[in-house]
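Now for a concrete sample entry.
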Amino acid sequence: MAKDFIPTNHDDFLTKLNQFITWLEANGAARGFSAAEIAAIKTVRDTVTGNLPVKKNADTAAVAANAALVTSEGQVESLWRPYGGRIQKHQDTTNEDRVDAGLTVPKATRTRRVVGSDVPDVIVEVGVGKIIVHWGTDPSNEARNKKPGWAVGVNIYLSINNGPEFLAAFDEASPYVHALAGPPVTITVRAAYRAPGEGQIGSKSAAVTVSAGG
C-alpha cells in the first residue's frame, strides 16, 4: 500500500504543506490552477499556521494540569485510604455505613461446598480408537447438560475386561474422551460427582459397558 504523502505529525504537516504551496505558487498556473485556487489553500494554510502554536501551548498546559491533578490525588489518597481503613475496622461500622461511605463491603463468609446426593447419568459413545463419555444431568443433550452446584466435575472410573476398577481421570466438563489402542476390549464405565476436595466424592453412577478398541 502506497504511503500517504500527507504527514500525520503536526509540525511535519505544516512543513510539507509550505513546501507544496511554494511549488504551487511557482508552477500552479502552468498546471491549470487559478489564482483563486492558490489563494484558497494559502488562506487555510495560514489558519493551520496560527492554530499550531495554540495547540502546542494547550498540550503543555494539559501536561502540567495532569501532573498537578495526579499529585493532588496522591496527597488526598494518603489520607483517604487510612481514614477508610479506620472506619472499616471500627466496631460500630455496619455494611450500610460502608455503602454510604463508598467503602468496600466485605464478602460474606464462603460456605464450603459439601458432597450432595446427586448421581450423574452416563452415556458412552464408541469412536475409532476412543470412547466418549457423556456425563451429567442430561448427557443425551450437551446443550442442556449440566452438573449440580456442589460439584466441580466427575471422577471417571473404568474397568477393562472385567478387571479391577480404576480412576481413569477427573473431568470438569462433559464429554470425557478416553483414547484406546490395541485389540477390542470390553470397557465398563462409571462416574461420580466430585466437590472441590479430592476426597469429596459422591455416589457412583450405574455401570455402562461397551466394546471398543484401537
The beta strands are 121-127, 130-136, 153-160, 166-171, 176-179, 185-194, 201-204, 208-212. The two ends are 53 Å apart (CA to CA).
